[in-house]
Inverse folding.
């Protein structure tokens, strides 16, 4: 029997990126990210042996106490991307300000945004974590500025994530569908294992942090209660609830078999519109899911149409199977049209 040869990442990219300067320099950016992913995967795997578990005393700009691997993985991404001649600037969850690099601004360069370790609270219990990343075009003819990152997610030219689980998996889109690659440790290559992934339009799974139920807006309460009612309620079918507390892991499950992930706006911290970061968490994941036929909404607006006002801006998200996302969006719309009073104020 002749063994079927699977396409590797290099072949896929060479077949799907053009020979233009812009695409060839984007290729350099993607390879720098892939190298970072390989190195971080080793860090995650070896963390218990290398004494790299646990928290640090200091916090990041979000006020979150950093895990040791947050800092180590961030340093890895920063070093590899700074060494890439096509990268004009970086924004990371773990760095207060944008990192701007002196580059030849007459060439096609890119701005890269990333969360080096998503779900780091799971590392010490050996649950899968990941990295999230995407790229935007840098300005041509002038040096990059921090404000250049503040564009709609629809302007991303590349997005993806890595998941450090039983297998090292890389999921990416260059705007032509969503592809899944699995790392072959024998050859050191990422192999295309699932091409042109599609998120089912309908689902019977939802993922939400139920401990925040007392802070939810009425549209989210309504949706979750209907799912919990199962065959006895208006939906007429049973739902399962899943929650890993790692956006990468939860969204990866949805990409593989459908579902909807909710991290909605709530009133737990009224001054925050949501918990997750728009630039380097919501936008990349939304592009990945939408390129696979799914949908991503805040409940009131399409995520990829939001224009950030700050590089660490937070926002809510409802992402996954498009019919469920649309249902939840319609609940928000109906609620917002109710007469405003103290009992049904949508901003309560």
């Amino acid at each position: 029997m002749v063994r079927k040869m699977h396409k590797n990442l290099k072949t896929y990219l060479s077949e799907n990126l053009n020979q233009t300067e812009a695409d060839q320099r984007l290729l350099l950016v993607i390879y720098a990210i892939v190298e970072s992913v390989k190195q971080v995967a080793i860090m995650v795997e070896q963390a218990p042996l290398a004494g790299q578990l646990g928290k640090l005393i200091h916090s990041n700009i979000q006020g979150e106490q950093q895990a040791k691997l947050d800092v180590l993985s961030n340093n890895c991404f920063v070093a590899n991307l700074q060494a890439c001649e096509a990268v004009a600037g970086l924004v990371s969850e773990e760095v207060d300000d944008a990192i701007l690099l002196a580059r030849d601004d007459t060439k096609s360069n890119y701005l890269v945004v990333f969360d080096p370790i998503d779900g780091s609270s799971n590392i010490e219990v050996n649950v899968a974590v990941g990295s999230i990343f995407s790229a935007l075009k840098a300005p041509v003819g002038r040096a990059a500025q921090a404000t250049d990152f503040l564009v709609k997610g629809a302007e991303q030219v590349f997005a993806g994530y890595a998941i450090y689980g039983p297998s090292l998996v890389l999921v990416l889109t260059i705007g032509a569908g969503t592809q899944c690659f699995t790392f072959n440790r024998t050859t050191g290559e990422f192999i295309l294992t699932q091409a042109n992934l599609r998120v089912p339009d309908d689902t019977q799974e939802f993922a939400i942090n139920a401990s925040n139920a007392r802070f939810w807006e009425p549209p989210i309460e309504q949706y979750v209660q209907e799912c919990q009612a199962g065959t006895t309620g208006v939906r007429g079918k049973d739902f399962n609830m899943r929650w890993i507390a790692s956006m990468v892991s939860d969204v990866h499950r949805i990409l593989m078999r459908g579902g909807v992930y909710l991290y909605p706006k709530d009133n737990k911290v009224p001054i925050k519109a949501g918990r997750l970061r728009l630039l380097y968490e919501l936008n990349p994941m939304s592009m990945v899911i939408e390129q696979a036929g799914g949908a991503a909404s805040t409940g009131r607006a399409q995520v990829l149409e939001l224009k950030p006002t700050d590089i660490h801006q937070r926002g809510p998200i409802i992402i996954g199977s498009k019919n469920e996302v649309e249902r939840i969006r319609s609940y928000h719309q109906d609620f917002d049209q109710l007469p405003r009073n103290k009992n049904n104020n949508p901003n309560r």
